[in-house]
Amino acid sequence: MRRRSNRGNDQAEVNMTPMLDIVFILLIFFIVTATFLQEQGFDMRPPPPNDEAEPTEPNPVILVQVDAENRVFVNQRATSEDRVLAAVQRIRAEAPQSAVLIEPNDEALHGTISTIWDDMRSNGIPVSIQRARGGGDDT
Q1: Full pLDDT tens readout for the chain, 139 residues
Q2: The dihedral of CA 72, 75, 77, 82: what is its sign?
Q3: Beta bridge partner(s), residue 72
Q4: d(Cα 88, Cα 103) in Å, to the nearest integer?
C-alpha cells in the first residue's frame, strides 16, 4: 500500500467576496444615515426686548467690616461682634432682599469672621466675603 503525500497541494483559500459585501453594505448604511443628521447651531439673533420694567434701584448691600483690631462695623457704624446679627436684621427689615458682604482685614481674627459668617448663614441671610480694599501691603 502506498500512501499519498499531497501535503504541498492542500492550501486553504479564504473567499473574500462575502466579507467585501458586508463592508460595502456597512459603508452604504453609514453614508445614508449620516446625511439625515441635523446639526444644531447657535441662534445669533438677540433676544426680544423685555416689556417688564427693570428695577429702578438694586438691592442694597449690607457691608460688615472687621478691622485689624477686631472692631466690627455694620455699614460703617461700630458695633460689637455679638450685635452684628441684630444690626443686619434691622437693616433687612427695611430692605428684605439685601445681602451681606463681609470685608475682613488681613490681620482680623479668623474666629470673629467665622462667627459672623455662621450667624448670617444660620439665619438664611445671603453672605459673601471680599478682601478689604487697601487692607494689605502687596509688594
Answers
A1: 566 655 556 677 888 888 899 999 999 988 888 766 577 777 778 878 877 766 666 778 899 999 989 899 999 999 988 899 999 999 998 888 888 999 999 888 888 899 999 998 998 888 888 876 654 444 3
A2: negative
A3: 66, 79
A4: 14
What are the CB-based long-range contacts (under 8 Å, 24+) for 60-64?
60/91, 60/95, 60/98, 61/98, 61/99, 61/100, 61/101, 62/88, 62/91, 62/92, 62/98, 62/99, 62/100, 62/101, 63/101, 63/103, 64/88, 64/100, 64/101, 64/102, 64/103, 64/116
C-alpha cell at 95: 430692605
In the chain, the domains with their CATH numbers are 61-129 (3.30.420.270)
All three cell numbers of 127, joined, read: 453672605
Residue with cell 438664611: 124
